[in-house]
Amino acid sequence: MAKTHHWDVFCRVVDNYGDIGICWRLSQQLVHEHGLQVRLFIDDIVAARHLISTLNLNQTSQMVNGVEICPWPNVSVTPAQVVIATFGCELPETYSQQLAAHQSVWINLEYLSAEPWVSDFHAQISPQPMLGVNKHFFFPGFFPDTGGLLRERHLLATRDAFLGSADKQAAFWNRLGLDHSILDSAIKISLFCYPQANIRNLFAALASIEQTIHVVMPFNGDVSQWSTAFADCTQIKTDASRLLLQQDKLNVHLLPFLSQADYDHLLWACDFNFVRGEDSWIRAIWAGKPFVWQPYWQADAVHLKKMQAFLAAYAEYASVEMQDLLSRASLDWSSGDPDLYSMTNPDKTLWQSLINQLPALRGYAQHRANTLAQQSDLATKLVIFSENLRNSQV
Question: Residues 56, 19, 66, 45: what is their CA dihedral angle, to the nearest 10 degrees?
């Protein structure tokens, strides 16, 4: 059977651009690395425009970087050969009723998890007798028997070229309005988190450390929503592009929304990264820098089980001492109540220990990035999986 060139990707924007971030990266990779024709259906074009800056909100369909972007639910179109429903989203009824007639492969791309059950459920079939087709579950993951991790072909080489060039790094910081000469001699931390994170306690702990620390925090919305977190900081400077806060030797730079490319550069350029959700989590892994991941908060501490499963997989080859440090830091950061800044008494010795161990943590992060990159990436596995399904229909 001929290669399946036509794909449709459906995305509902739920998690503050995280979902569209994954779908946009995947769609572009399918086009540029696998030669596919991709239509990306998005239910919130306004939100998507934050990541896809050239989107024209007045057009019903448009080509951006080789991907045809279409609004949803305006999908009175013929289904593609391969249909990707991301993160459990339901397809429009009029669209799903046409899948059988066109022999479309229907794949449900799930959220990333390191939990043990993922390997068992990956590639499983869910018959849809009312539609006359099967839905196939595809789980990204950290193990060879899962769907892999989203990674562009030249990502790590691009990262290494950036890290090997002082000029590229200086130009990046200067473009953000930050003096690279000051940052070069300091510890640089990127911070991207959910509101449940106890930033105030983290800042108090970091401010007690003797080294100069610069925290760079991309954010959206009104600064007032973070007023409690910044309560102990002094506002030094504010202008159209950034706000600088200071507490002892801790400097906090609030930045406007970054493009995906600039966010990658930020992760690469920093010594430590706080990330959240899925898209920034995956990019932090490929950055090869130490990081703490904050999973999306869920009732009954379900998010902590996901965090612990990830640490068990990611820190498998680390020393016992490093495993303990990463576990305590992750728990301290992610175990907060959804009521903002509910924790007290920051563990200053924990974050001091983490700062002291940055060289060892960096070496381990580089090792894990390189070993995980030896596995096939998610887009490649999706293409192979879809081809096998199409061939089985012959």
Answer: -10
CATH code of the domain occupying 155-372: 3.40.50.2000
Q: How far apart are CA 382 and CA 351, in angstroms?
A: 39
278 is catalytic: yes
**Catalytic position from the list 15, 278, 279, 332:** 278
pLDDT at 137: 97
Whether 41 contacts 70, CB under 8 Å: yes
- Indicate if 115 belongs to the active site: no
Q: Please, which pLDDT band fits residue 4 given cuts at 50, 70 and 90?
A: low
Domain range summary for the chain, segments of one domain joined by +: 6-150+376-392, 155-372
Q: Where are the alpha helices (DSSP H) in 64-116?
A: 93-96
6-150+376-392 domain in CATH 3.40.50? yes
Q: Please identify which of the residues 8, 19, 264, 279 carries the catalytic annotation.
A: 19
The CA distance from 145 to 232, in Å, is 48
Q: What is the pTM of this model?
A: 0.93
